[in-house]
Amino acid sequence: MRISGKSSNVQDRRGMGGPLMAGGGIGAIVIALVVMFLGGDPSEVLQQTAPTGQGAPAPGEPDPEADFVSGVLLDTEKTWDVVFREQLGREYQHPQLVLFSGATQSACGVGQAAAGPFYCPLDQKVYIDLSFYRELRERFGAPGDAAQAYVVAHEVGHHVQTLLGISEQVINQRQRMGRAEGNELSVRQELQADCFAGLWLNHADRSRKVLEPGDVEEAMNAASAIGDDRIQRRTQGQVVPESFTHGSSEQRMRWFRRGLETGQVQSCDTFGAGGV
Hints:
- By secondary structure, the protein is of the alpha/beta class.
- The protein has one domain (10-268).
- 51% of the residues lie in helices and 8% in strands.
- It is built from 10 helices and 6 strands.
- It has helices at residues 26-37, 43-46, 64-88, 131-138, 145-163, 166-174, 179-208, 215-225, 228-236, 249-262, and strands spanning 10-12, 96-99, 103-106, 109-112, 118-120, 125-128.
- Mean pLDDT is 87; it is low at 18-31 and 43-52.
């Protein structure tokens, strides 16, 4: 991808651990990721082991992954500034992105690398341990910079949901629902974030020509790789749709493509869609 510049809204906490950073490893990351994707509580794994993350390089050493993530964040800022103004008639408030290794404190509690990248609506920050990209590449078979960009854009999509009041509505509704209904609502929320990620790429390429050959396929592959059905089939040998929390591979690719093709916020209404 042709990504340039760096966002001023990146906070680097790598190497700032402590007791939370000790122990763990790649196995714990994978296990807890699977638990989370299947709708379980990754804290059961994390109570026993907290993985070490990818620390910051020494001063003066190149840090291409961190630079790329910062550049993608800057590009999402450019896109959503325009989309909020032209499509929604309001001002976009930029989120912060926190790079951490192993574990870090957020307003939503202690964030663990084992839970993967996440967004906290209470402090409006995106949290990423860059070691997740190694997992995405080696364990989930989704390499490439466009796959990495998709992850950032998806989490920024959750920030957009927070600014639009969607996240709060989902939280309030889930409190009155059973587990199955709550899971379905969660799926719709995640698919909308996928659609918003595609929307970003639509505008970024039309305005700044960020795409290179194969980039769309890389991003689609990443969306597919972390579909609930693929993860369930690989880890437990069967698919249980009622336990989905993020959507199937087909759903995630379809909604990402919808955002990519339309570039319109209104086209990403997963909550109004009859069947997601």
